[in-house]
Amino acid sequence: MTSQVSSTAEGAAPADPPAKEVRRLDRVIIRFAGDSGDGMQLTGDRFTSETASFGNDLSTLPNFPAEIRAPAGTLPGVSSFQLHFADHDILTPGDAPNVLVAMNPAALKANIADVPHGAEIIVNTDEFTKRPMAKVGYDASPLEDGSLDAYNVHPVPLTTLTIEALKDYGLSRKEAERSKNMFALGLLSWMYHRPTESTEAFLRKKFAKKPQIAEANVAAFRAGWNFGETTEDFAVSYEVAPATSAFPPGTYRNISGNLALSYGLIAASRQADLPLYLGSYPITPASDILHELSKHKNFGVRTFQAEDEIAGIGAALGAAFGGALAVTTTSGPGVALKSEAIGLAVSLELPLLIVDIQRGGPSTGLPTKTEQADLLQAMYGRNGEAPVPIVAPRTPADCFDAAIDAARIALIYRTPVFLLSDGYLANGSEPWRVPDTDELPDLRVQFASGPNHELADGTEVFWPYKRDPHTLARPWAVPGTPGLEHRIGGIEKQDGTGNISYDPANHDFMVRTRQAKVDGIAVPDVEVDDPSGEARTLVLGWGSTYGPVTAAVRRVRAEGERVAQAHLRHLNPFPGNLGEVLARYDKVVVPEMNLGQLATLLRARYLTDIRSYTQVSGMPFKAEQLATVLKEAIHHG
Amino acid sequence: MAETTGSMIEALSLVPKAEAVQSMKDFKSDQEVRWCPGCGDYAILAAVQGFMPELGLAKENIVFVSGIGCSSRFPYYMNTYGMHSIHGRAPAIATGLASSRRDLSVWVVTGDGDALSIGGNHLIHALRRNVNLKILLFNNRIYGLTKGQYSPTSEVGKITKSTPMGSLDAPFNPVSLAIGAEASFVARTVDSDRKHLTEVLRQAAAHPGTALVEIYQNCNIFNDGAFEALKDKQRAQEAVIRLEHGQPIRFGAENEKGVVRDRATGDLKVVTVTPENASDVLVHDAHAASPTTAFALSRLADPDTLHHTPIGVLRSVDRPVYDTLMSDQLEAAIEEKGKGDLAALLAGNDTWTVVG
After folding, report:
1. Could you tell me if residue B344 is inside a domain?
2. Which residues of chain A lie closer than 8 angstroms to B99, CB-CB?
């Protein structure tokens, strides 16, 4: 599929017709960049929302520093939001922007390396004065020294124009200046024919308590639009048609990974007919799930902001003992703290979801950047043999289904389950076909209600560790059930009775049984996509690399190459056919945002020669980069 | 000190009642008790098992949660629901259970190492939140299960395996700590005084919110006689200050000692009561809104000799209960927005339709 290559974004020199020219594009990548305080994330979100409601396919990549307000005008303080939208289905936020909006010299400097020659750059000239430029090391103005000659630069005094547009609103200069992001949004909305009603409604709602500010922002937004319409510098506007054929019929909305994951948890709770209980401690980039679930108490959702990570999972485990669908949400450092409690959950064999929104590590690492380096921590990061199933979503919207799948496994098998998302999925967004709630799986469980074992003397008793012969799950007997009073704990238990047992043979049996239970979890076979049926190279991904891997596969196939693709949702246990799939290909490429953790697992398990391709830059792979890797694998070595 | 049944059950109003009259043996599990012979834990276990029938609660709605340590084996011996969890985390686990299941009576059993060292954070936050939990802190001033290291309540200079030249760190006074952590109910009792222990349990059970009961417990293997000053009849008369709400705080062989406020500093002190100063003797008010006097009382005890150790309920005040507030918010949300509609939630406000 060639559509990853822009067809008309750049090219023909603009003529100067009296009426403004409108060109059609099949896709565009825009990056808004500014200071942390410039409201770039909000601007990006609004443009995304306009684009979603217009019906384009889209994918976003917010990128921001960990500091709430890094020093103004500095390179570390630059915050950006990249949006890729198209008239066809797309998979990634795009490799390189066609348009860069730079609100200050730092934003230009931090992003220019990613911008290909010929692209459009809209700069806020008001900020290109001596001090802000000196702060980031510009001796001469890049707007004047010819260094941007290869680009199509639109110098716009965004600040001045915004202040001028708002002069009748009775705002201080500082207050008025704050709306310059809305001016920029208005201008871009004009350039790309975005619908504007939703943004105006949004602003009026957001500033409902400050109507003066609301109207000022709407005015700045309209002024930006009108500026595009009237000024000669912007001679061309662009249309990107809705991606009608890319989407199956249905109702769509735009959704981020953390939001989809939150909704998945609420949906799982409803489908299981169990109250949802979240025990959590704030941590980037997982906190949004705590925030979101806290809004939905009318669904019977209890959210408990604990004193620390351990108490977060502790409370969740207590709620699980009481019969709730229990969840704890965190990121890598939090998982480290929760390890002992996860081990307890393994021993207690209670359902529990551990949501890890992975970020750059080790230690505090890169809190706002993405990584996939917690796979081995999820797999092995506990004392003793403590197997935990692992489920990983592949796209932001897929976080919804993955959450439901993780809940299914936890509830059926009475086990803690890892849901491994990451910062890229958490904050990125894409269109999502809103599911019909009647189509959601039935997750209801049977609590134990009576004795399940007969002693030699005929007495009926309840044995908390007498297992279901098929799933090896133990009964879930919740407090309040008469006659089933029992005690469970982290000390090794006797098979069946659950009483404390230090018997060597029993321990060996219990360790192997817990492992067998997880190994026996029913997961679907991994599907291989190989249109030619003749590929000798397989690319295997997991988690959020799905987008860039699939985009890369499309590129190389468009060039006539043969490559097979498979993607893992279940990392523990692996799909039953995975060994056979790996054996089918001469070469298996595994791209990961770590130093080869899945590759390590695959080599150990299947004795297969894996070509591990890794990146730990805190940023997702680019499609072009992976396409090159695939071509190399196909043709060399 | 006899306001039992009826009103006491207010704290447990959502917990189903037992259908039949219960006896102590209903609360004994079939597990063999494995504490060292002579351990103070036996007496506490017997007192708790003996007291439970009085509550008249369906025993399937009672849960004991513990951490790690000798005392934390307690749940195995109670024929209720129970969880023997991990070191220090019982208050957190119990918080999740109690806040999601208000129909349960949830008890935490912990020790001085479990509650005050590794689990100190969870303890203070449970107290601050006022979750409906009854925390029984067995304080033997030593680490028993790991064979005799000093604990966070050991007296300074304690010679143990890990401190052959004497421990260096000052101990916690658990009652002072709890009062400082905004506890709404704080009491202290002694393992060997079954009657006093039972009465304190009674008041703790009746308290809505987190109740912390420190129980001085003898470890006859690693710290034998740690509380002898409070147990020996003769010595106890001088050492123990028995607190009763509404009564003057007096003690001594002849009841000759009393607690008065030092006019110069505002602090409390022990004096010999005379006809002149008898009217100055402080009347214990466990329900005082301010924790100041309760805290001052807790500081009368000498951490080394245990002289002037107050026992009984130091503080018992009504404060909003976390789990009740949490449920109230759920109800308020339903009242305000209606019961959650999943389809509407998933669709949100900003959708578009693709037709085939």
Report:
1. no
2. 302, 304, 315, 319
